[in-house]
Amino acid sequence: MRRGSVTFRPLAEMLGLRAGGLTRLLERALVDFGAEESFSRASERLYYHHRVRLSESSVRRKTLAHARGMRLRGTTGAVSGALPAQGPEDIVAEIDGTMLPVVQTSPGSEGNARKNRLCLWKETRLAAARAHGRTQTHYALGSDDVSECGQAWARAVMLAGWAVNSRIHALGDGAVWIYLQYLQVFGLCPGRFLLDFFHVCEYLADAAAAVPTHARWLDVQKRRLLEGHPERILAALKPFLENEDADDEQTPVRSAYRYISARMDQLDYPYAKENGLPIGSGLIEGGHRHVLQKRLKISGAWWKQDNLADMAHLRVCRANQCEDQYWHDLRQAA
Question: What is d(CA 43, CA 22) in angstroms, rounded to the nearest whole number?
């Protein structure tokens, strides 16, 4: 309807439609596809399933916009208040970083940013927690500042049901910052920190290649670890320690000795075995693969730093099953 130079669209206004706009359901569908596959493939799947044609750039723009909305709203699982009195008896908690592709651009003298770009790998830290005996894993993203990653770790554990009676079974690969964050956040709580069994075995395997002894030497040391006798491993390594003047790369026995002797209080594998708790950090390794790397590390993908952070929050939001809350909040705000 037109009146002079003014156009009226009463039906569109009544239905909340606008020219070139997308319905909320369509936006959610394209975000679903864009969060799981490349934006080009998401455009194809959108047409295949819904017979709606949208360009790759449109899918990218909308997906990134909602990913940023989830990041700004903090829609990855909100927790607050004091710990409840009762909850899961044991909670497995892990945190670690993974390297993701980042591209930095600058206009340069010719004004073309594509000709002045730097591709590099940037670490993104992810925390994971799961109540022992349950299947749902909860995640939280850490910040660039290592000293603040403990807050993300605590948030993931709270999502898993952290209560006053809960024992925190934390695992790590020996990185000092992980253990320090454990002491800062969970040091006064029941539970313990366990060194990832397979990382210890990697050090022992390197040492075994340099130890002139029997072929079953490595198997013997593994059994001693599981039986709770790390001091016997140190005694077996000590006669073969290399010269202190040699480079670390050429001293696998000395490296294994230092690695184990500095973490003697993190090797209580018998307790974990008796209580059916994991001795390896597979929880966080799996989280890196299917939460972050599956989408953000696909072939040919290089992300601007802000877009990478937004998409990482989108992936964590989906993994924590918090998307419904985000879309509900949008409907309420409309």
Answer: 14
pLDDT digits 0-9 by tens, 133-172 = 999 999 999 988 888 899 999 999 999 999 999 999 999 9
10 found inside a domain: yes
Q: How far apart are CA 185 and CA 187, in angstroms?
A: 6
As a whole number of angstroms, the distance between CA 152 and CA 231 comes to 35
The tokens describing 294, both together, are 């599956």
Query: How far is the C-alpha of 313 from the C-alpha of 114, rounded, in Å?
Result: 26
Q: Outline where DSSP puts E strands in 88-210.
A: 90-105, 117-131, 138-141, 167-172, 191-195
Is the full-model pTM beyond 0.85? yes
| CB-count burial class (<10 Å; 0-12, 13-18, 19+) for 122 | middle
Range of the domain at 66: 2-78+303-333
70 part of a folded domain: yes
CA-to-CA distance for 231 and 221, rounded, in angstroms?
10
Residue 171, helix vs strand vs coil: strand
Q: How many domains does the chain have?
A: 1
